[in-house]
């Protein structure tokens, strides 16, 4: 028979609300199995007969028999005719759970060099909820959900169960055609459906570029300051990151050859440099294209939020200016539509379509067909352009509201640099504030900020904050700015804000 403690353990297990979704015989089987795994029931130990155990637990004998049958089938117990049920000899080979508990003296796990680099670089800080003032978060409350639902129903009606099957490895053809048409018309690209590769995100695109085009140890040029996701992708691939300074005209292209004569690629955000918001001038774009031709290097153009330009039309992309087909263009719908869509893309030179598609299928196969086909209809019907136009006007208004609020309430602490485009505003400290202290204190009152200094590879006297404004109403911004004013004033008064 079970000891009292063992019987009580089984009762506690089967009465635990966390296990309520399991059938009663499964709960009894799992409880006894756990006692065997924990060593509470040793090898050869006789189990109670099904009838008395059923009486003790207040269940039917058939329920206990079902539990014993499953334990026998899994090899945890032996059933001997005329003798009863016993913990199986096979349980002798089970590792003791108590012995397997990790201790501080155990050796650390051995990772590959790439795994170690990824671990030490940390994850990309994705601001996943629209807390004030999370950078890069788009407004989703204005998304035309009814239209999206209608188009999705049309997809089911037309495709039936085919919409539930695997996507084509390169992405669904209707979406690739829609993206190519959009890029040619709105971004001045040289695009065709055959050159589009559908992905889950711009981060996946950055990772593919870093891993497929370069070998570990190769030099790549990056902007300084730099989007964290690009730095993580470069580090994960084992590449040597060479920072190039950014000024008000974008990347200082004339310094590239001097800083890294053998560089294999340059990562650019030419439309709105992240995080400064600078636009790469035409002469520098042309110099970068010529550099890539001479070096037989690649330009990796991350056009992450080019739709949102608030003064005139957005600048045409670098890819459309490149006659040598050395530019890879990255786009995403995370900023222009909604983050949960999880669709990005690469516009590739023809010679890279096959290797990039193969590499992508090894990572995660494909995107969901339904979302791709719905997005294709959303674009073909003009809904995408209409939504972007509406959001462009809304974001421009919110940008100006934030700038005015910052000047009115936080002028003693920081100066906003009003961007010509994008979803976030760089702000520079006017006194010796500590970015880390400000970010930590703000997080404590529900405000998400990103320190500008953390985005530089080469430390500069350019401390400040990156503040997102797209996902907040004027009232929400006003409330958050008042909170932040109190946070900054408290830090200055306590003397804990100084660098």
TrEMBL record:
<dbReference type="InterPro" id="IPR036388">
    <property type="entry name" value="WH-like_DNA-bd_sf"/>
</dbReference>
<dbReference type="GO" id="GO:0003700">
    <property type="term" value="F:DNA-binding transcription factor activity"/>
</dbReference>
<protein>
    <submittedName>
        <fullName>PLP-dependent aminotransferase family protein</fullName>
    </submittedName>
</protein>
<keyword id="KW-0808">Transferase</keyword>
<comment type="similarity">
    <text>In the C-terminal section; belongs to the class-I pyridoxal-phosphate-dependent aminotransferase family.</text>
</comment>
<keyword id="KW-0663">Pyridoxal phosphate</keyword>
<dbReference type="GO" id="GO:0003677">
    <property type="term" value="F:DNA binding"/>
</dbReference>
<feature type="region of interest" description="Disordered">
    <location>
        <begin position="92"/>
        <end position="111"/>
    </location>
</feature>
<dbReference type="InterPro" id="IPR015421">
    <property type="entry name" value="PyrdxlP-dep_Trfase_major"/>
</dbReference>
<dbReference type="GO" id="GO:0030170">
    <property type="term" value="F:pyridoxal phosphate binding"/>
</dbReference>
<keyword id="KW-0805">Transcription regulation</keyword>
<dbReference type="Pfam" id="PF00155">
    <property type="entry name" value="Aminotran_1_2"/>
</dbReference>
<keyword id="KW-0238">DNA-binding</keyword>
<keyword id="KW-0032">Aminotransferase</keyword>
<dbReference type="Pfam" id="PF00392">
    <property type="entry name" value="GntR"/>
</dbReference>
<dbReference type="GO" id="GO:0008483">
    <property type="term" value="F:transaminase activity"/>
</dbReference>
<dbReference type="InterPro" id="IPR051446">
    <property type="entry name" value="HTH_trans_reg/aminotransferase"/>
</dbReference>
<feature type="domain" description="HTH gntR-type">
    <location>
        <begin position="22"/>
        <end position="90"/>
    </location>
</feature>
<dbReference type="InterPro" id="IPR000524">
    <property type="entry name" value="Tscrpt_reg_HTH_GntR"/>
</dbReference>
<dbReference type="InterPro" id="IPR004839">
    <property type="entry name" value="Aminotransferase_I/II_large"/>
</dbReference>
<dbReference type="InterPro" id="IPR015424">
    <property type="entry name" value="PyrdxlP-dep_Trfase"/>
</dbReference>
<keyword id="KW-0804">Transcription</keyword>
<dbReference type="InterPro" id="IPR036390">
    <property type="entry name" value="WH_DNA-bd_sf"/>
</dbReference>
